[in-house]
Every structure is written in C-alpha cells, then in structure tokens.
Design brief:
Layout lengths: L1 E6 L10 E2 L3 H12 L3 E6 L5 H11 L3 E5 L6 H14 L4 E5 L1 H5 L1 H7 L6 E3 L3 H13 L10 E3 L2 E2 L26 E2 L5 E4 L2 E3 L9 H5 L3 E3 L2 H10 L4 E4 L8 H14 L4 E6 L1 H6 L1 H9 L2 E9 L3 H6 L6 H13 L3 E8 L5 H13 L3 E6 L7 H6 L24 H20 L4 H13 L4 H6 L2 H4 L2 H9 L37 H9 L7
Parallel strand pairs: 1-3, 1-4, 4-5, 5-6, 10-13, 13-14, 14-15, 15-16, 16-17
Antiparallel strand pairs: 2-9, 6-7, 7-8, 11-12
Helix pairs in contact: 1-6, 8-9, 9-11, 14-16, 16-20
Length: about 525
Amino acid sequence: MRLLAVHPSSLMYTKVFLRLEPLGLELVAGAARNKGHEVEIIDLQVEKHPDYWERIERFRPHAICFSGNYLANVPEIIDLCKETRRRLPNVFLFIGGHSISFIARDVLALSDGAINCVLKGEGDATVGLLLEAWEQGKDLLTVPGVVTMEGDGPPPIFIESLDEVRPARDLLRHRRKYFIGTLDPAASIEFARGCPWDCTFCSAWTFYGRSYRTASAKVIGEELQEIKEPGIFIVDDVAFVHAEHGMAIADEIKRRNIQKEYYLETRADVLMRNKEVFAVWKEIGLSYIFIGLEAVDAEGLKRFRKRVSMDRNFEALEYARSLDLIVAINLIADPSWDRERFEVIRQWCLEIPDIVNISVTTPYPGTEIWESESRKLTTRDYRLFDIQHAVMPTTLPLREFYEELVKTQQILNNKHLGWSAIKDTLGIALRLALRGQTNFLTMIWKFNSVFNPELQMADHAQKPEYEMPLKPEGTDQKVDRKTLYVHGPAGRKSRKLDDATEKFVDETRMSTVD
C-alpha cells in the first residue's frame, strides 16, 4: 500500500520558540515501511495545505494517517479529513497520536464518517497490523488499539523493543527547518519512552501506564552517528532517570567520537540524584537543560503532585549553572493569578539568570486535572487548548489576565532576546545565518506578532466549529485513576529501572497508587 503520513500545522508556542521534527510520525512511517509499504511524509509545520493536495495528487495514497498529538490541531485534522474524503471517497483515513488516544470516539463523531478509525497507543507497534487488516478486508476491530464508531478493538500494545523501529528521517523534505532555540538546525531522538511519575497536569504517565522503557546504547549511538544535524533534542519526558543508561549512552558517544550539541528535559530531583551523569554529558556536548519547576511555592508543587521541595529545586538550578549549562525552566500560570501574583513572578524571574517559560494551567483529557476541573471550563473549543489560552475562569477579567500574561512573557523574552542581550543574540544569529540557518534569527523578531492579548481575545471571540463534549452531570466524584490510562499499567515489570531507582521514583511522587 501507499501510505501518506501527515503532521498538522504549528501551534502558537511552536511558531516562535521551536519547531521539532515529527519524530513520532517518522517512527510510524518507519514501522509501516518495515512491513513493505511505500510511505511518504508531509509536515504542515513547514509546508502548506496546497502542498498536501499536490502530494496527494502525485502520490495517490491508498491510506492517509494524521498525527494527533495536540488538541489544538483537532479542527485542522478533521477539516482535512472531511475534504480528503470528499475528493478520495475510497481512501483509508485514520488518526493516531498522544492526545487523540484519549478522545478517540469524540473525534470520530465530529468527523461525520470521514475518518475510518483512530489508532490508540503506540502507533509504531500496530500500524503494520492495521494496514494489513484494511488491505485484506479484515475486521479493523481485531487490531489492538483500534476505535471505530462501531466499537473498540483489543487494548493497545507496546512495541516489543525500542530498538525494533528506526524513524524514517529520510522522508522529510525540509530537515533544515527544525530547531529549538539556538540549536538550528536540530534533529530529535528518543532514548527512553514513558514516565514513572504521575503529575496531575501531565498525561505522559496515563498514556504509557507509568511504564519506562529504554533503547540500547548501541542503537542510539548508531542513530546519532547517522544524523546530519549538529543539534540534538532528546525528547524523553525525563532524561536520565536511570543513571546507568545515561552513562552507557555517553560511553557509546565517546567511543564513536560523535560531536553534537544536546538539549534535554529532566526533573530537578533526577538532576540532583544523578549529578555525575549530567556532568559527563556536559563534557560530550550537553548545552541546554530544561527543568519543569511548574511552581515557585510549596502549595503549587503540591497541587501538581511534585514531591520536590523548593530548596531542592533551587539546588538543582545552582548545580546546572555550575556545569555552565544554559538552564530553561517552565512555570504554570494559574487562572487564579492576580496582578500582584504576576508581578511577584516577574520579579523572581528577573532575579535569576535562567530562561523562564510561562504556560497556562490547562486541563487535558488523560490528566487528573481534566477529571477534576473540566466541568469548570469556560470554553470547549479545541483550538484554545494549547497551554497559551485560558480555558478556565480567571480571577482577573480575561483581557487583563492576557495582558499580564503577555507582559510577563515579553519581559522574560526581552531578558534573553531583547536589547540588553542583543550583542550575544545577534552574534549567534549571524553565525547561524552564515551557515544558511535563519530559524533562530526569525524567532527573535516574531514574538510580538504571535503573543498578543488582542489576538488571544479574538481567538475566544471566534465561533467554535468543533467542541469537546460536555462532561456528564454527577461525575465530580474522586478520580478513578484506572480509567485514565491508554496503555494499562503493568506495575514494576513495565519499568526498566533498578530497585534503587524504583524506590527513588516512589519517594518523589505524591501518589502511592499504580
């Protein structure tokens, strides 16, 4: 079969600060190609809708799959599926991905029959089975993870080994368009999959059933050696949970003499526990480290179920700085924040040397705060669920909330990319431009055209075309965590962690339920 794999357009945040290659879609494409199918990828982050139609006309796919990792992309995906169905009545259309896995039946209902099915869970594990079933006229509901309007197939399954499928990077036509900050261009790579923690605002653990699996250092080394981009973004939800694994990859990189620059995300407590791992990685090219603090007070940390003390967080920041790493942190702006709270946050952020990103508390399907907060939503418009719009009641009038939010973001943006930092900023941008890379340079001047209270208010004023269904009455009781999972939890055996690390994880998460 001929399969066209499609990544939807950029969202608000990714229009400015980063544009990552669609690694998950490349893995699905690689898995399909391993089964003998002819595959092409189009990424609408760097191409346009007319390019999509041109590709369909030229390639004439038998099947088209869409990556549904982000709720805000749902309207675009549904519209494209409906128009594709109109033009190609017999094509096999399906969607997979992280967010879509939690709302499969809702999306199918909104598509008015345009979408054949949703493939929940790990797409690289089951895309081959799905294409085979369609090609041979079998019942799709025999395939693990499949959801149709007629019912659900068997539960999703994991790929047997993360070494089994390699991403089809060669299928992307515009690889130099991908970047994150000054890593321009940058490729993405996966060292481990899943997360053993259980933060209330996150759906990584509910998607993977609190599992944690790793790829072998040898395969990672081979993949890094093949990647042409000088910058590498490590996509793991929490990098180097398992110290031995991190060291083994570092040894493999040294043995192969791989010269790259790395950006990764981790937790403060993991950094402090595995200091030697991060020190070694600094030696082999780690430049940026992103730490999700989420809150700057104990009450906020408790709400997000992060059992890390503020002192421990600040110790982690100090240690990262001592390694001469560029540190970025994330804070979550709560809708309850008033002007005074925003001002406190601004002053705190200006007093530290680190890059600070501000997102907005957003209940996502698959998270515990979705179950506890979704009845409070002020909008059900899928477009606004992008962690940059307020979808719950704000203490300040909504316009004032956005004014304070954007003011805070602007001050923090200027701190690193404004006139005070213009010498270093332009120096980096010019060096990149001389190599033909202008993604970072464009980013510097793009902020005000994207982050703008007037635009955010206009988004709210626009009539929603596709909305989330209302949560039924009488469902505000305590969350049954078992109902949140896409891949069901399999307990200790699903986590490739030594006993000491497993104990550490349990001691640093708030819940005791698996």
